[in-house]
Design goal:
Elements (H helix, E strand, L loop, with lengths): L2 H14 L22 H7 L5 H13 L16 H5 L9 H11 L8 E5 L2 H5 L4 H6 L3 E3 L3 H16 L3 H17 L4 E4 L16 E4 H15 L1
Parallel strand pairs: 1-2, 1-3, 3-4
């Protein structure tokens, strides 16, 4: 969805692929359409729905020969079930893959409280809530004022403006989750990967973009 996050996602797929030469890499079709309406705005304020263009996009990818689809955007997974109904190929689920990764690493946590940094749309639609609950975890989100700063900072990262301030605000979001007792942390917006190396956390972080990239490679190789 976000062009820069999409580019980074593909870069991570390349890095994670067990390739020794060009020919060993995965054949990939990337559809980056910046005209897709803002999914977060739609979920928060009922602005123009991105669903029609999303449906057109997954259909295009299937027609171009894709065997499966990965969407490096957390918020858009609110539409995941509807999109799956429109094509005859699998669409990997970044939410499910992230929760699966947490479940597989559960022995390293002191408790079942999982913190989440994400857009307002992802939080409002509780995209992670049920998945974590079903896996035996409880969700923690930043305090309201801190969450507003986190959400605004994600858009600053998208625009490339005020990155230092955005990083400081995301760091405050991490601190808020730690203080509330979270034993693990989800970077629940793929744009956060762009500043991940500047962030510090005392609890285990799970980067949804990296997790989806690994799941993409694993799924392709298994097929």
């Amino acid at each position: 969805m976000g062009p820069e996050a999409t580019a980074l996602f593909y870069h991570r797929v390349v890095q994670l692929s067990p390739a020794k030469n060009d020919q060993d890499h995965l054949k990939t079709v990337i559809l980056s359409n910046p005209k897709i309406p803002d999914r977060n705005c739609h979920l928060v304020s009922e602005s123009e729905s991105p669903l029609p263009i999303l449906i057109d996009g997954v259909r295009q990818l299937e027609c171009m020969g894709a065997d499966f689809i990965s969407m490096p955007c957390n918020t858009v997974h609110w539409f995941w079930e509807q999109l799956c109904e429109e094509v005859n190929i699998p669409i990997l689920n970044i939410i499910s893959e992230t929760v699966k990764a947490i479940k597989n690493d559960q022995k390293n946590f002191s408790n079942s409280l999982i913190g989440l940094l994400a857009t307002d749309g992802t939080l409002r639609m509780e995209i992670y809530h049920q998945a974590l609950l079903s896996a035996g975890f409880a969700l923690i989100i930043p305090e309201p004022a801190t969450q507003k700063a986190v959400h605004d900072s994600i858009y600053s990262i998208k625009s490339g403006e005020n990155i230092r301030k955005a990083t400081e605000n995301i760091q405050k979001g991490i601190l808020s989750l730690q203080q509330q007792g979270a034993s693990a942390l989800i970077y629940g917006c793929t744009e956060l990967n762009l500043i991940k190396n500047e962030l510090r956390t005392e609890i285990t972080p799970f980067d949804s973009l990296d997790i989806l990239a690994k799941a993409t490679v694993d799924f392709a190789l298994s097929e």
